[in-house]
Amino acid sequence: SVLESHVTIGHATVVGDGTHLFSGVSVGDYCVIGERNRLMSGSVIGSDGYGYEYENGTHQRVPQIGNVVTSSDVDIGANSTIDRARFGSTLVGTGTKIDNQVQIAHNVKIGHHCLIVAQVGISGSTVLGDGVIVGGQAGIAGHLKIGSGAMIAGGTAVISDIEAQSKVRGYPAMPMMLFNRMAVLQRKLPDLFKRFDQLEKRVNSLTNDMI
Fold first, then answer.
1. pLDDT tens string 168-191
2. Sign of CA dihedral 88, 128, 101, 35
3. Degrees (nearest 5) of the Cα angle 184, 188, 152?
């Protein structure tokens, strides 16, 4: 394995054979980094998950005592963050490729050979099946299930489960074909409103003539 300058490895952490940690990478305590991983500069693996309980008028931090486990042949882009689990493990499956500035929250489970593009956010305890593709700046709410082979277009807001092999887009997420049809109709709205206004004026004119 190769560890470049200013890399930090936590207590009882394991780094697999053939893995390359670029400068400034931080891997927290008890995490497991698989074989032949590539962690680009500034990525943070095993930071605390975002967990708080509201008590006595303040937000109290809930200890995050799990870890992060990445399988073999995983790439993690620059300045991406993967939070440790509250309990158990945050998981990244074999062959998954994560782009720059991606946030993966605690207890997320990502399947094998997924592609997650820049600035995606995945909320806690969501599960992605194998071969899922998530476009840039998409956001996925927590405790959801994204079926294997699903494709989520860039900028999509996912607030409910996605079936396997689905293609979704929009805010909130909808079938991609429906989104495309709606986009085409939106472009026709100015002309439709103009025609409706003309029709309304004609109807009013005919009504006045009858009176």
1. 999 999 999 999 888 888 888 888
2. positive
3. 20
- Residue (of 102, 76, 90, 96) closest to 24 by Cα position: 76
- In this structure, what DSSP letter does residue 100 have? T
User: What residues contact 5, with CB distance under 8 A and at least 6 apart?
Assistant: 23, 24
Closest CA to 120 of 146, 85, 94, 86: 146
**Which of the following is catalytic: 20, 106, 112, 143?**
106
- Is 113 marked active-site? no
pTM (predicted TM-score)? 0.88
In 3D, which of 19, 25, 20, 30 has the Cα closest to residue 7?
A: 25
Phi, psi of 74 (to 5 degrees): -95, 135
Token digits for 210? Answer: 């009858």
Tokens 């992605």 sit at which residue?
128
